[in-house]
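Standup notes
- HV: blocked on the assembly model, inputs below
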Amino acid sequence: MRQPLHERIRSDFEARILSGELAPGDRIPIEQDLMQHYGCARMTVNKALSALLSAGLIDRRKRAGTFVARPRMHSMVLDVPDLPSQIRERGQVYAYFPIGHRLRPPAPSRDDEMRLAGGGDLFELEGLHLADDIPLALEYRLISVLAVPDIGDATDIEAISPGSWLLKHVPWTEAETRISALEATAEEARLLRIPQRSACLCVERRTWRGSDRITYVRQVFVGNSYDLVARFGATR
Amino acid sequence: MRQPLHERIRSDFEARILSGELAPGDRIPIEQDLMQHYGCARMTVNKALSALLSAGLIDRRKRAGTFVARPRMHSMVLDVPDLPSQIRERGQVYAYFPIGHRLRPPAPSRDDEMRLAGGGDLFELEGLHLADDIPLALEYRLISVLAVPDIGDATDIEAISPGSWLLKHVPWTEAETRISALEATAEEARLLRIPQRSACLCVERRTWRGSDRITYVRQVFVGNSYDLVARFGATR
DNA sequence: TCGCGATTAATGTATAGACAAATCTACCAT
DNA sequence: ATGGTAGATTTGTCTATACATTAATCGCGA
């Protein structure tokens, strides 16, 4: 059996749905008919249809039947590899240039900092990401010391890049990313070696591990030398 | 049975993996032990573990066993609702202002246009997305007439918004989105009623249906009044 | 006609068992 | 030591069956 039967059934319908032969709202035969058609047990058909269901390609209602789902277009998979590997993939040399770091308490007036710190202190750092020695992005990062206690004896955190270091030590389970455009401030422009008020892509990210906040990061990319690419397959 | 057993088993391990209690590489008990532990049949355990497998949380190898997967940090789910609904969600009034449209052959010198057209003509259109009558984004779009034949008798395409219209008529199966920052040209600045060279967020998207190209769209957003938000959770 | 309860058709969950496929382990012959 | 082969273990697939759950529908009575 080079291809499992349930997989064949699944891909049959996937193909018919994606090609448009089966349009949204169309009825899909009931499991009884499908087991007749494929000459197999109901559990096999069920496994195939369950996969299509969790892929969001079909809707199923008891008593009513199975239908091709209406496409919900509102989510796609964004490919956000970490910066070093992304730069290396483009055949460039990656380097991180640390500007500074310090341990400090959160500012009582900043709600977000207080929540991130969660009663502990914050590790604040700033640095430049370089591709072939040319500044690509400016990174400002806050790390909750409570969530990442070994940050104190981390001498290597700025040797690679803070993002990569964190991911290796404290994988996150949830993240929120905000992407916007802004004009570089004088300071940002100086560090990135671009004209003042140049258009930059700003990526802000907050990450959690379970219910604990881990880090906040803000990366300002040189506008014309970076873009994010997202690819989409079928829903979800 | 308000919660199916296989779902309970699945979420048990999901929680233990996401909390870090089970670290990448850790062994998960074999199905025999799990059916003992939960007092159920092997198929039930198998269903739970299959779900975790397809969610990418575990790896399974015959004879070797089941292990917590190493997190692949390089992709997250980007929420890209279509513009009208996104604007309405913010409590603003959405409107589309058409600037112009025409039917034309693809430019022979433009490879991308030729591939998009696929031997037919292109429907080109331009318009403004307004939130509370304030320009939010400028949209330039090319549609393959071959892929969307009913575009000729589409009188309503500019009544709502081209994106929404297309999605209703020709659901896509694949898309690629590119996000970058740029400075508004004089023309863009005039239409968006912002100063020249203001920072803007540029979203370009190509969509396919199967192997046929459907449309190319380029949206230029006013930098400070829009941002994309991507959320990543576990599972999917 | 309008509700309301019973029927029933569909999916959802679970069982127990069988065999296939992969691959790790141990042993055996060279 | 080396290489190959024969188990043994674990997952992968599939069957046949049973009962639970949901909701569309039908029939009945007001």
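- HV (later): unblocked. Chain A has seven helices and eleven strands. Chain A touches chain B through 52 residues (CB under 8 Å).
- Next: hand off to the docking folks.
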